[in-house]
Amino acid sequence: MEALAEISARFGVHALVVVLMDNHYHLVVEDEGNALSSAIGHLNQLHAQRFNGRRGRVGALFQGRFKSRLVQEEVYLAELVRYVHANPVKAGMVARAGDYAWSSHHVYLSGATPAWLHKSKVMRLFGGDTPEGRRTLDAFVHARVPEAIQKVLDWRRSPAIVGDEAFKAAHRENARKLRASGRDDVRGERPWLNLQVSEVIEAVASHCGVDLETIRQAVRGRLNRPRRATLILCVELTAASGREIAAAIGARPASIAPMASHYRKLASTDPELQSIIDSVRTRLRHGPESIL
Question: What contacts 24+ positions apart, CB below 8 Å, involve 72-78?
Fold first, then answer.
């Protein structure tokens, strides 16, 4: 779940519906950053590293590439919510979807708003994030799914694009144009992922009034907030690999992802560190003219 929050911040890929099963998971995401492949690749890699680290194992955790479908929101979002949230019930793991701990359904019913889940779009479908809206959502998830909808959302048979004919035609035409232009492999990340690690380091140093060596040097026992902020922002705002970030700030490549996760947790209880992160993030995304 922490990794889901990280891909939301870094890639603009927001989880609307989540269920973790025994050996696979389902996500419904909104891909605002047009970076789905990069985001899911990062998610799987990050989870595998943490899973392996906890259990003393090595190697791949997931088999093959993830399967994805582009789905028309206006027609099928509510049905996707039901389809995904009902998985543990269909598998006989629980009697009610809300009883399953590793699903976003019980989070929706609780009214909580964790960083890894974007709830507003889904709850608007059911009358808002109110007790009545939550009851409506729960009843819908447990209602019988029409046979026609089951066929459309069956992952073994459904096409790559799910929607009405106009929706499918528009996306096929867009894909045709990309192929014709030779740009069908464009990653399309958000503009600020074009930032260089050096730009992040310089922005943090300027904001904090420190020299670049302060950020590049780690001294045991000394709290170095600029360095911590730099590491978090490099992971979040650049497309650099862990090796590239490590080389720039003088760290071990394998430590970058765990350190970024650890420092994010520290920032939640360190207002000064969080202030550096927020201020520099805004500056890098929107330019110095937006900072008053």
Answer: 72/162, 72/163, 72/164, 72/167, 73/121, 75/163, 75/164, 75/167, 76/152, 76/153, 76/162, 76/163, 77/16, 77/28, 77/121, 77/122, 77/125, 78/125, 78/126, 78/140
From the list 272, 199, 266, the residue with the least C-alpha distance to 233 is 199
Residue 55 predicted with pLDDT over 80? yes
- C-alpha to C-alpha distance for 164 and 172, rounded to whole angstroms: 12
Round to whole Å and give the CA distance between 175 and 137: 35
Write the burial class of residue 52 (CB in 10 Å: 0-12 exposed, 13-18 middle, 19+ buried): middle
Please write the tens of the pLDDT for every residue from 90-110: 999 999 999 999 999 999 999
Single-letter amino acid code for the residue at 151: K
Both structure tokens of 228:
């911590």
Lowest mean pLDDT among 22-26, 120-124, 252-256: 252-256
For residue 10, give the amino acid letter: R
CA torsion, ordered 282, 111, 114, 223, to nearest 10 deg: 80
pLDDT of 291 over the 60 cut: no
Task: State the CB neighbour count (10 A cutoff) for residue 23.
Answer: 7
How far apart CA 162 and CA 18 sit, in angstroms, is: 19
Closest CA to 189 of 256, 232, 238: 238
d(Cα 84, Cα 45) in Å, to the nearest integer? 23
For the CA atoms of the chain, what is the radius of gyration? Answer: 21
Q: Which of 74-83, 96-105, 146-155, 211-220 has the highest mean pLDDT?
A: 96-105
Tokens of 232: 């978090």
| Residue spans of beta strands (DSSP E) within 173-269 | none
pLDDT at res. 190 = 42
**Distance (Å, rounded) from C-alpha 96 to C-alpha 69?**
27
